[in-house]
Amino acid sequence: MEIHVIHYLIISTVMMFCGIYGFFTRRNLLALLISVELMLNATNINFAVFNRYLFPDQLEGHFFSLFGIAIAAAETAVAIAIIINVYRNVKQVLTDDITDLKG
Amino acid sequence: MDYTILILALPALSFLVLALAGMKMSHRVAGMLGTLSLGIVAVLSYMTAFSYFTAERTSEGVYPTLEPWNFEWLPFTSSLHIDMGILLDPISVMMLVVISTVSLMVHIYSFGYMKGEVGFQRYYAFLSLFTFSMLGLVVATNIFQMYVFWELVGVSSYLLIGFYYTKPEAIAASKKAFIVTRFADLGFLIGILIYGYYMNTFTFTPTEEQLMHAGMVLPWALGLMFVGGAGKSAMFPLHIWLPDAMEGPTPVSALIHAATMVVAGVYLVARMFPLFIGFAPNALHMVAYVGAFTAFYAAAVACAQSDIKRVLAFSTISQIGFMMVALGVCTAADPHEGGLGYMAGMFHLFTHAMFKALLFLGAGCIIHAVHSNEMETMGGLRKYMPITHITFLIACLAIAGIPPFSGFFSKDEILTACFQFSPVIGWVMTIIAGMTAFYMFRLYYGIFWGKENKELHEHHTPHESPLSMTFPLMFLALITLVAGFIPFGHYVSSNGHAYDIHLDWSVAGTSIVVAVIAIALATWMYAREKQPVAEMLAKRFSTLHRAAYRRFYMDEIWMFVTKRIIFRCISTPLAWFDRHVVDQFMNFMAWSTNAAGESAQPIQNGRIQSYTQWFLGGIVVLTIILLIF
Lengths: 103, 629
Description:
- The structure holds two protein chains of two kinds.
- Chain A is built from three helices and no strands.
- By secondary structure, chain A is an all-alpha fold.
- Chain A has helices spanning 5-25, 29-54, 60-90.
- In chain A, 76% of the residues lie in helices and 0% in strands.
- Chain B is mainly alpha-helical.
- The radius of gyration of chain B is 29 Å and the shape is globular.
- In chain B, a hairpin with a 5-residue loop joins strand 1 (66-75) and strand 2.
- Chain B is 72% helix and 3% strand.
- Chain B contains 26 helices and two strands.
- Chain B starts with a helix and ends with a helix.
- Chain B has helices at 4-21, 27-54, 90-113, 120-138, 143-161, 168-199, 208-214, 217-232, 241-244, 250-259, 264-271, 273-279, 281-302, 308-328, 340-370, 386-400, 406-421, 423-448, 454-459, 467-482, 488-491, 505-526, 532-540, 542-549, 554-600, 608-628; strands at 66-75, 81-88.
- The interface between A and B is small, with 12 and 11 residues.
C-alpha cells in the first residue's frame, strides 16, 4: 500500500487529540508536560509532511520541524524546573491542589 | 537710564535672599539687608527723577516718554504681544519717588516697631516683595505687565495682612482683602481682554487705526478696567476689605493700605487718562461720581469710628475718593481748560501718600506705647510723646487743608477743578473736606488731649518711641511741610505741558474757612476732658450714630448678598448638580467597571485545565468563524 499524505495526517491528528485529551484529563503536571510534547510533535510531523509533499524542492518546513524540536526541548527544561520548584514549595504536583494563582 | 533696571532688580533679589535664607539670618542682618537694598532703590529713584525732570523737554514742550528696558515676553501676533519693561514718563517717575520714599521710611520704622517679633525676616521678605511688585506696576510698559504686577501686589498685601497668622481676625481680613480685590480684578482682566481683542495691542498708546477698530467697545473696556481699579482703591461698594486690612502690622498699613497700593486704582485711571478723555468721557464722569460718593460715605463713617486705625482707613478711602473725583471731573486734556483735575489728582496722590504714611506711622507709635487701638484707652498722650504729637499734628493740619501744609495745595487744586466742572460737585467736595478736618481733629484730640487713662498709666507709663521710629516721622513731616511748594504742575500735567499752579483765592478761602470751622467744632466737642456735646449728639441721633459706627451696614449687606443670594440661589444648586449628577456619573462608571470585574472573577479559578478549556473553546469558535466566512 502506498503511503499517502493522508496517512501522516491521520497519525498527527490522532497524536494532537491524544495530547489535548491528556492535557484536559490528567492531573499530574508531568503527565501534562508529556501531553504538550505530543501536541508539539504532531505539528512537527505536519510541517515535515506538507513540506515533503507540496514543496519537495524547498526546506522551510523541515527547518520549522527542527525549530519545533529545539523549542520543545527548551520548554521541557523550563517546565521541569518550574515543576520541581512547585514541588519544593507545596509538596504536590497535582493540578487540583495548585490553585494559588486564582483571581 | 539703564540703571533703572536695578530699581526693580534689587527688591526682587532681596526678596529672594530673605525668603530663601532669611531664617538662617539674625533679625538685624535680615532687616539691614532689606533696608539697604531699599535705600539704594530710593537713591536710584531720586537720581532717575532728577535726571528725568532736568532733561530737555521735546520740541512740543513735553517730557519724553522713555523705555530704557523692554523685551517681548509673550508674542501672539505681530502687534499683539505682552512685553516686560520699564516705562518712564512723568507720572511713573513721580510714583517711583513716592513708593521708594515711603517704603524706605517703613523699612526703617519697622526696625523699632517689629523688634523681637517672630517672623521678622519673613516680614522684611514680604516688604521687599511688595516694593518690587509696586515698582513693577508703576513702570509697566503695557496694560498686561501692569496686570501681572497688580496681582503680585495683591498677593503681597494678602501675605502682609495675614502676617500674624495665628490671629483668626488677621486670617479673615487677609482672605477678605484678597477675595474682594480679586473679584474686582475679574473686571480688570475682562477689560484688558476686550482691549487686546478689539485693539490688537496691549500698549497704552494705540495707533489711530487700532482705535478706529475698537470703536464703541473702548468705553466698556475702560469702564471694566476701572472696576479693577475701584477694587484696589477701595471705592464704594468694594471698599469693605480696607478697614479690615488694618489687622496687619501698622507699618504695613502705612505702606500698602495708605500710601501706595490703594492708589494703584487712581494710577490706573491716570495711566489710561488719554483714552478716557478722548473716547470715554462719560466713563470718566462715572469715576467722578463713584469717587465723590465714596469720599462722602467714608468721611461720614470715619466720624463715628473708635479704633484709630479704622478712622485712618476710612480717611484713606475718602481721600482716594478725592483723587478719583479729581481725575473724573476732567473734560479736556488741556490743564487750562478742564484738564486741571489730572494734575490735582496726581498732586494729591503725592502729598497724601506722605502725610497719610506719617499718620499711620504715628498711629503705630501710639499703639506701640499704649498697646491698644481703641481711642478710649488713649487721651492726654501729648506730654509723653512729644515728637509723635507734633508730627501727627502736622499731618492732621495737612489733611485738613490748612496752609502752608502740603495737603492744602493739592486739595485746593482738586476743589478748583471740581468747581470748574460743576458747582454742585465743588460744594459737595468742599463739605467733605470740612468733614475730613472734623474727624481728623476728633482723632487728634481723642489721642493727645482729653482725659488721661490713669489706670493704664499706673502700671505702664507711655513713652516716646526709639529713634528708628521717630526718624521716619520727622522725615515725612518735613516732606509734608515743604511738598506743597513743589511746582508740581511743571512736572505732571494732563497733556505734559508745564502748568503753573495759581491759587484761586475764592475757592482756597472757602476751603480754609470750612476747615477752620470744622477744626473749631472738633476742638469745642472733643478737646476737653468731658465731652457732653459729643455724648449728647450720639444719644440724640443714636440710630445714625450706630449706623455710622457699623459702617452703614455695608458688611452686613455684602454678607446678605453673598450668603443669602449668591450662595443659596446659585452656589447651592450648582453644588447639588455637581454632587448628584457629575459625581454620581463618575461613581457609576467606577461601579460598573468594578461589577464587571467581580462577575469575571470566578473564571480565574487557578486551575490550569479550566483555562485551557476556555482556550480550546476560543480556538474552536475562531475556527468556525473562519470556516463560515
